[in-house]
Amino acid sequence: MANTSLPREQLIAQLVAAIGAKHVLHRREELMLYEYDASALDLAAPEIVAVPGSSAEVAAVVRIAAAAGWPIVARGAGTGLSGGSVPAAGGVVVSLARLDRVLRIDPAARLAVVQPGVINTDLSAAAAAHGLHFAPDPSSQRSSTIGGNAAENAGGPHCLKYGVTTNHILGASVVLADGSVAQLGGEAPDAPGYDLLGAFVGSEGTLGIATELTVRLTPNPESVRTFLAIYDEAIPGAGQGLDAAADSVSAIIAAGIVPAALEMLEGLGVRLVEEYIHAGYPTDARAVLLIEIDGLREELEAQAEQIAAICRAHGARELRAASDEEQRQKLWAGRKGALAACARLKPHYHIQDGVVPRSRLTELLRLTEEVAQRYQLDVVNIFHAGDGNLHPLLLFDLREHGARERAIAASEEILQACVAAGGTISGEHGIGLEKRDYMRWMFSDDDIGAMLQLRAVFDPRDVMNPCKQLPSGSSCADIKHARGAERAVAAGAWI
Fold first, then answer.
1. Where is 229: in which H helix or E strand?
2. In 3D, which of 298, 302, 294 has the Cα closest to residue 322?
3. Which of 31, 68, 66, 27 is CA-nearest to residue 46?
4. Cα(158)–Cα(261) distance, rounded to whole angstroms?
5. Whole-number Å distance between alpha carbons of 155 and 384
6. Is residue 210 within a helix (H) or strand (E), and if so which, with residue range?
7. Long-range Cβ contacts of 409-415 (<8 Å, 24+ apart)
8. What pLDDT does 82 receive?
9. Fold of 223-334
10. Which of 18, 255, 274, 486 is the most exposed place for a label (fewest CB within 10 A)?
11. What is the phi-psi region of residue 422: left when phi exceeds 0, alpha when psi lies from -120 to 50, beta otherwise?
12. Residue 112 to residue 29: CA distance in whole angstroms
């Protein structure tokens, strides 16, 4: 963590001179919005928030703050789920909300140049006239930004077929830790030299701040088919419904079919989603699979028949096909509204995104249930089954004594089990503050040392989002979870 060398009031004055008084926030009531992200556990206040309106202004803010030795934390829409934009070390938050323009769409090259504050779905809406869209589709896509998607290397249901964000970023204009600007990648494919763009995407603001992004656009498919496969608690001759649904996932992939999306909802999650969204999910099901295929009409017919046969062979009670676009959107509204639906049961959550081999899905799902029961928590599993990306939601009420600590301890057990099963601690949410210390479960000291050396090349003074993503120096040792949320509730606040 950097040692500040300039008093706060002097830094405020310099930032005001650079970007204007109305774009420099420093009063307590102005800073409250920037204390948290969607992870719901971590809360830490910045000392200043700067809201630049151009690439040049971002560079000026970074140059001023870095010269003063202040920590710098980039922030998009604040929809992250690992504390990546929480200013755990205080300092200056650089909000990119004003950089929200689609600068150019090139339909012939199938690319767009955008500012980082562009909302995910707004980019697809802008590209729709050309028969194109931006494929990465996190569940927060109606509010999350392209810059945030790139920082966390976000995924989404349709990344099973189309890949996560890094597969769709072609270039980035990046403000480095000293305020200089570097161009990583570009419109031409296969640029020579080191793949610095690959290192930058997913670096969570620790290597710099993107002010322009060149992204790949994907043609809209000719046809889309969406199905809901339904599994009962017990299936005669096929065992348990949860096992049958998980086995169906592996069988579909093994048959050579790569769906655009292959999602699973099970047990309590199915009921909560249906009661909230009314998407058409059967509330008595042990598990449901939301399966979507896309491509040429002719190939989809054969794939649909194969999928139906596989699901029936594994004991699915029913395979419903969306009859029109309205019904398809309702099915997806259920899946993407799952987080909000869970608030009907408990007001707070701790969500994880460990990844395991598909063959270990059932084992890990049952473990989440056992762990949640032992820690006196409710758990909902709604996740990207096709690529083994689990999303256990541990539900609790922060007003209950010790609930936060139980949720954190339970999530640690689940993630340790994911690693032991040959998986990883994050598929798309990033590491941030929440899972920083868990990196040692997967990487040796030499591995982490090499990554810290790369980070130091970009940021030798350690001012860019310090204490995030990698275990680092003693100044960060005590910052594991920012405990402000618990203090706020104790003081009477409601989160």
1. strand 223-231
2. 294
3. 31
4. 5
5. 10
6. strand 209-216
7. 409/375, 410/350, 410/371, 410/372, 410/374, 410/375, 410/377, 411/350, 411/352, 412/438, 413/371, 414/352, 414/354, 414/364, 414/367, 414/368, 414/371, 414/390, 415/352, 415/354, 415/441
8. 95
9. Alpha-Beta Plaits (3.30.70)
10. 255
11. left
12. 37
How does pLDDT run across 283-342, given as a tens digit for each residue? 999 999 999 999 999 999 999 999 999 999 999 999 999 999 999 999 999 999 998 999
Q: What is the domain partition of the chain in residue ranges?
A: 8-97+451-490, 102-219, 223-334, 341-429
At which residue do the structure tokens 């992939």 appear? 253
Global pTM? 0.93
Contacts of 68 (CB under 8 A, 6+ apart): 4, 5, 6, 10, 11, 14
Rg of the chain over all Cα atoms, to the nearest angstrom: 23
Residue 356 φ/ψ region, left for φ over 0, alpha for ψ in the -120 to 50 degree band, beta for the rest: beta
Q: Are 60 and 179 in contact (CB under 8 A)?
A: yes
- How far apart CA 264 and CA 173 sit, in angstroms, is 37
Equal fold, 102-219 vs 341-429: no
d(CA 64, CA 8): 12
What pLDDT digit, counting tens, does each position of 370-429 carry?
A: 999 999 999 999 999 999 999 999 999 999 999 999 999 999 999 999 999 999 999 999
Q: 3-state DSSP call for residue 438?
A: helix
**Lookup result for tokens 């990306």:** 389
Fold of 8-97+451-490: 3.30.43
**How big, in percent rounded to 5, are the helix, strand and coil portions of the chain?**
40, 20, 40
Q: Which two tokens stand for residue 175?
A: 């403000």
Tell me yes or no: is domain 341-429 CATH 3.30.70.2740.
yes
CATH class given for the domain over 102-219: alpha beta
Amino acid occupying residue 473:
G
Distances (CA, A) of 226 to 68, 325, 341, 387: 54, 9, 22, 18
pLDDT in tens, 331-379: 999 999 998 999 999 999 999 999 999 999 999 999 999 999 999 999 9
Report the C-alpha gap between 79 and 148 in whole angstroms: 8
How far is 474 from 210, CA to CA, in rounded Å? 29
Task: Indicate the Cα dihedral angle 156, 150, 349, 278, nearest 10°.
Answer: -30
Looking up tokens 């707070």 gives 348
- Within 10 angstroms of residue 255's Cβ, the number of other Cβ atoms is 13
- The answer to whether residues 491 and 242 touch, using CB atoms and an 8 Å cutoff, is no
